[in-house]
Amino acid sequence: MTQSIAEALPGSLGDAFQETVANWLSRAVPDRAQNQCFDLPAILATDIGLQREENQDRVAALRLSARQSSQPVIAVVVADGMGGMRDGAKCATLAVSSFFQALVRHRHQGLEHRAAAAAAHANDTVYAFAGGRGGATLSALLFDAGAPPVIINLGDSIVAM
């Protein structure tokens, strides 16, 4: 039996922010889509490709206000459901939404600590949902003024600078 996204979220009702992000990422979208990110000179795009019937990619950017600084933290995350495994699209949705939720939860920590906590939380949430029978890769870039960017790679999708 397959869990819904809401059932996979931690706590009795899940985290409202994470659930909002998960619902937004789960909405019906075209096979190919792009959005402009106004905080960065970037465009977020996804393409189903020629081999798959379902687009299991999830891409999103999040701007987090910083209380200690006038500059926000920007997080850009790409997750790719593992094709051929159970619930790849849901796993990718959970990876992104739980990563963002942990970034918010650990907002008073340094950027590297936040990134590590977010990666661990995303991995734990996806594993709790799929039990190793499904999964997603996750790659992220975190930008904070005055600090070098932090790069996260979970799985075989890689971001390099």
Kindly list the characteristics that best describe this protein:
161 residues; alpha+beta; Phosphatase 2c, domain 1; 4-stranded antiparallel beta sheet; two-stranded antiparallel sheet; globular; Serine/threonine protein phosphatase PrpC; PPM-type-like_dom_sf
State the helix count. Answer: 4
CATH superfamily of the domain at 54-161: PPM-type phosphatase domain
Number of strands: 6
Q: What's the story with the biggest beta sheet?
A: 4 strands, antiparallel
Low-confidence segments, given as residue ranges, are none
CATH topology of the domain at 54-161: Phosphatase 2c, domain 1
Counting helices, strands and paired strands, the structural category is alpha+beta
How would you spell out the order of helices and strands?
A: HHEEEEHHEE
For the record, the CATH class of the domain at 54-161 is Alpha Beta
Percentage beta strand: 25-35%
Gyration radius, in Å: 15 Å
Quaternary structure type: single chain
Organism: Labrys wisconsinensis
InterPro entries: PPM-type-like_dom_sf
Protein name: Serine/threonine protein phosphatase PrpC
